[in-house]
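Ticket reopened. Same input as before:
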Amino acid sequence: MSEPAALSLVSAVLLPFLGVLLGLAFGGRHVRAVALLTILAGLGVVISIAFSFIQSAQPLTYLLGGWAPPLGIALRADGLSVAMMLAVAVVVAAIAAYAWKDFVPDHDGAEKRAPFMYWLLLLAVWGSLNLVFLSGDLFTLYVALELLTFAGVPLVCLDGRGETLRAALRYLLFALAGSLLYLLGAVFLYGAYGTLDIAQLAVLVRPEAIAWTAAALMTAGLLAKTALFPLHIWLPPAHAGAPAAGSAILSALVIKGSWFLVVRLWFDAMPGVVTWSAAQLLAALGAMAIVVGSVVALRQERLKLLVAYSTIAQIGYLFLMFPLAFDAAGTVLAHGAVMDAGVLQAISHATAKAGMFMAAGLIYASLGHDRIAGLAGVARAMPITVLAFALAGLALMGVLPSGAYLAKKLLLGAADDSGQWWWTIVLQGGAAFTAGYMVLVLACVFRRPAEPVVLVKRVSKLSEAAALLLSVCSLLLAFTALGPVPGNLISNPLAVKELLTTLAVLFGGVLLALAFSRQPLLAASIRGHNGPAIGRVLMMWASAFESLDRFARRWPVAALALFILAACFWMLFSGLPAL
Amino acid sequence: MTTAMAFGLCAAVLIGLGVYGLITHPQPLRKILAFNVIGSGVFLLFGAIAYRGAGAGMPADPVPQALLITGIVVAFSATALAVAVLLRLHDETGSASLSAPDAEKPANGEHDA
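Engineering reply: fixed in the latest deploy. New output:
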């Protein structure tokens, strides 16, 4: 591998951290400039990595200090990591543009804590994510994951209010429990095989008790960090309490780190150990996350909490790829179209969810509140923000030509090919649930207000543009992905079948919003104490889902669930129950 | 019983104790301590594996010790961060509890939904 390419792999990790150090050294007044320069340079580095990857058409590897694994540490950039790095770089740049006017040092030059920390943490999250994407060694990945958590936790409590501190502490403690399980698994692997290098492990690992234990512990630990239902104890308060520019980082980027690691573990480190039935459990958790997360999102009274719960549902969506990536015989977990679909989904979620949190943050900033019931008339007052929110929602729903559309298409094809029809239902139903909370929010913002909307603060044009840019990116992602994906998947968007599917998804969304939301969508509501029986049944269901969510978010339940899940994965890896 | 086996059993006991504490104790400080107990167990186990050296096919393996040091540093930083957040939480709210004072209590009989 050529010297400049090797240098670019190292600098993709080092540059953001160098920025953190320089920012610390120069102090609060210059931290914004340092962050801007670092982000521009980092963008250049990531683009150059992408170019040399495309040119060489094979994974780039760099051995630190020239020491080969297992004694040394390798940095590897394959297609998966290059795609994620590019997406993350774009999202980081857009988030920086969004936060540019929000996190400024005082005019008199005094150093303020929150803006100062914000820029350093943004760079730290970026550097840790690049390390997660590049490192080819399970222990380096552990360190990278911990760095990511340490950078994410202070973002939650940036404004220092009691409730956000509590949310940050919950997040930190639960994430630490997860990372200890991961570390324990890595220790087992080293004890059994004498290496932690992913490429070497893939060859050495055999399906035996110690590998099952390691895989089960590591998977459960990573799920806790990704906040997959029922381990989402920390996510709603953390993501809803953080400032919008922080929530965008947490929701779009930080959870992708541990998700990416699950993908690495299952596809690259131990493809021979993971089993079809364990993948079914993983995707079943995802399906539950979609249903519970979406229904509870519809029940929220505050916009930021709604977006936070929708993140839980979208995390569930990311795990649907695992069972579909097995071949028809259900024995081999293979790279291929399904993996592309998963990455595409992660990228479109990263861009769309960042855009959505930004739009929600802008609405919060200019109204001074984010009560969904009080959003009437916002569409007229802040058209660009509402447009960004709506486009992000369309992109998440998987409307053509969004990245999520292409991903859904690929996954549906894989479900048909491997005969797993039940995931077809989940994939289509998930889109309807997403449509549900989009319809709810849009119905509120377009409603005619009783009195004129009072904007307490004008938001900056730059922030609005950044939110809109990310939403549009997500919505147009299918075009950029046309290269590696067979082109015949994009059918004519105006064909009858496509239109009918989109309409069915939207109609399902309207029905769900009507059924579960607290706000009456239309003037007359079918619910209420004196309403028809169906209304009362729906209310019972809605409160059942809310209780389930509250129950799962209690500490002892969540901690027990973590260990029970690890045990379940162990059993499914070992094939104890004959499924 | 070999020495490595004794260390391994000790590690298992430590991890078990820590996991019990992590699940049952409601106070954040106890949870932080439990995290450290589990961490010590994992590090002890790693030490035993290094002593055994079986994975690398050597009489004793130096790599885990290098990893251990890093792991201890990471666990130390995690503890420091957690204690700092906890202290700040106590300063701001006057209590050091993980659940909000007005936490909604789920109504009885709805758990099995």
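Chain A touches chain B through 46 residues (CB under 8 Å). Residues 1-134 of chain A form one domain. Please confirm and we'll close it.
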